[in-house]
C-alpha cells in the first residue's frame, strides 16, 4: 500500500505548490475563514497550513490518511462534485512522500494528532489546539529521492507557491489568507496577505482582485456577468490598454477551481482579437460556474484542466460577453 501511495503521490504532488494547493483546498472545504500558510526553503523542508475550519474528529484522523477515504462524496456521484476534494488522495499521497503531521480539533472535543512518514502511520495521540486543523508537511519527497531531483530552486518553488496561494485567494474573497516564509527559522516574514473582503459578490471580488493582481488592473477592469445555457460567466476583464506582454494576468476558474485550459484562454484571446496586437495578452479574472454535470474535472489528478460537455457554449459565452463589455466601453 505504501508503494501504491508513492506512485499515486507522483500524480497528485508534483512539487511543493501542488501540496500547498491540496492543503488550502481542504481548509476551504472545511469552511475555514482564515487560512495561514507557512513555508520554508521553497516548501521543500516545511509546508504548514493552519485553518479555523470544522476540524477532523479524533476517530476520523486515521481515516483521513487512508487511500480513497473522503468525507465529501459517497462514490456513487463522481460526476456531481461541489467541493474541491473528492478523491481522498491528497493526504495519503502527502503522507507517502513526506513527513506529515495533522493536528485537529472539532468543537466540543479535545484536539488530537496523527503522524505519517514515508507511508507509516503513528497512533493518534492527544494534542493542544484551540480549533480547526494544522497540517504540517516536512521534508517533501525525502522518501522518493528520484523526485527530489526534479524540484527547482527554492526561489522558483517559493514563486510557484505564491502563485498558487494568490489564485486560490482570488476564488475565495471572504477568506483571509496569509503566506509566511519562515526559511531560517523564527517568525519569518509575510510575503502575501489578503484580509477577508466584505460586500456583495462583485464588490468583494473587485477588492480582492485589486489586492492580488493590483490596483491598476482593478481600475481598468470591466465587470462581466453573463449566462448562457446554464453556464454563468462572471468576473473582471481589463481594457485592452491594460494588456500584458505575456499571459501572466489571466486567471480562470471553473466552479471555483483555478484552471489552466487552452480552450478557455483561446476564447479569451479571440474576444480581444480585434483590439490587441499579436504580442499583447488580455488580462482577466473570470469565473465560470455551472452545474457540475456539465463539466468534467476528472481529466487530470492535479485537477487543473477541465472538459466541458459542450465546449462551444463556454467558448461562445466568453467571446460574446467580453466583446459586449468591450463594445460598451467604447471598443
Ligand atoms: P479529499 O479532499 O479528496 O476528501 P484528502 O486526502 O484531501 O481527500 O482529505 C481526506 C479527508 O480528510 C477529507 O475528506 C476531510 O474529511 C478530511 N480533511 C482533510 N483536511 C481537512 C481540514 N483542513 N479540515 C477538516 N477536514 C479535513
Ligand atoms: Mg483534499
TrEMBL record:
| GO BP annotations listed | mismatch repair
Superkingdom in the source lineage:
Bacteria
Look up keyword Iron and say if it applies: no
Tell me yes or no: is DNA damage among this UniProt entry's keywords: yes
Cellular component terms (Gene Ontology) = mismatch repair complex
Keyword annotations of the record: DNA damage, DNA repair
Positions of the DNA mismatch repair protein S5 domain:
209-327
List the molecular function annotations (GO) for this entry.
ATP binding; ATP hydrolysis activity; ATP-dependent DNA damage sensor activity; mismatched DNA binding
Function of the molecule: This protein is involved in the repair of mismatches in DNA. It is required for dam-dependent methyl-directed DNA mismatch repair. May act as a 'molecular matchmaker', a protein that promotes the formation of a stable complex between two or more DNA-binding proteins in an ATP-dependent manner without itself being part of a final effector complex.
Q: Which family does it belong to?
A: Belongs to the DNA mismatch repair MutL/HexB family.
Write the protein's name. DNA mismatch repair protein MutL
Gene this protein is translated from: mutL
> Which part of the full protein does this chain span, and how long is the full protein?
20 to 350 of 616
Amino acid at each position: 500500500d505504501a508503494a501504491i501511495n508513492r506512485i499515486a503521490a507522483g500524480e497528485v504532488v508534483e512539487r511543493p505548490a501542488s501540496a500547498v494547493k491540496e492543503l488550502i483546498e481542504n481548509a476551504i472545504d472545511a469552511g475555514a475563514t482564515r487560512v495561514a500558510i507557512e513555508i520554508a526553503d521553497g516548501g521543500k523542508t516545511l509546508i504548514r497550513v493552519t485553518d479555523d475550519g470544522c476540524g477532523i474528529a479524533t476517530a476520523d484522523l486515521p481515516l483521513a490518511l487512508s487511500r480513497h477515504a473522503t468525507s465529501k462524496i459517497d462514490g456513487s456521484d463522481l460526476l456531481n462534485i461541489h467541493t474541491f476534494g473528492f478523491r481522498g488522495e491528497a493526504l495519503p499521497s502527502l503522507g507517502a512522500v513526506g513527513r506529515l503531521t495533522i493536528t485537529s480539533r472539532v468543537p466540543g472535543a479535545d484536539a488530537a494528532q496523527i503522524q505519517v512518514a514515508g507511508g507509516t502511520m503513528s497512533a493518534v495521540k492527544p494534542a493542544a489546539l484551540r480549533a480547526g486543523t494544522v497540517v504540517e508537511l516536512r521534508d517533501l519527497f525525502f522518501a522518493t529521492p528520484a523526485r527530489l531531483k526534479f524540484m527547482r530552486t527554492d526561489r522558483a518553488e517559493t514563486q510557484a507557491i505564491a502563485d498558487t496561494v494568490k489564485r486560490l485567494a482570488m476564488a475565495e474573497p471572504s477568506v483571509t489568507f496569509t503566506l509566511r516564509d519562515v526559511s531560517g527559522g523564527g517568525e519569518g516574514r509575510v510575503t502575501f496577505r489578503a484580509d477577508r473582503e466584505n460586500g456583495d459578490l462583485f464588490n468583494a471580488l473587485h477588492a480582492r482582485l485589486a489586492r492580488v493582481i493590483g490596483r491598476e488592473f482593478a481600475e481598468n477592469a470591466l465587470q462581466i456577468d453573463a449566462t448562457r445555457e446554464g453556464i454563468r460567466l462572471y468576473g473582471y476583464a481589463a481594457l485592452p490598454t491594460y494588456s500584458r506582454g505575456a499571459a501572466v494576468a489571466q486567471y480562470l476558474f471553473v466552479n471555483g477551481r483555478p484552471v489552466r485550459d487552452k480552450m478557455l484562454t483561446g476564447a479569451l484571446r479571440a474576444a480581444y482579437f480585434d483590439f490587441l496586437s499579436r504580442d499583447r495578452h488580455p488580462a482577466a479574472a473570470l469565473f465560470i460556474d455551472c452545474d457540475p454535470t456539465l463539466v468534467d474535472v476528472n481529466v487530470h489528478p492535479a485537477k487543473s484542466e477541465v472538459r466541458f460537455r459542450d465546449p462551444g457554449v463556454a467558448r461562445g459565452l466568453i467571446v460574446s460577453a467580453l466583446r459586449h463589455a468591450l463594445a460598451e466601453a467604447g471598443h
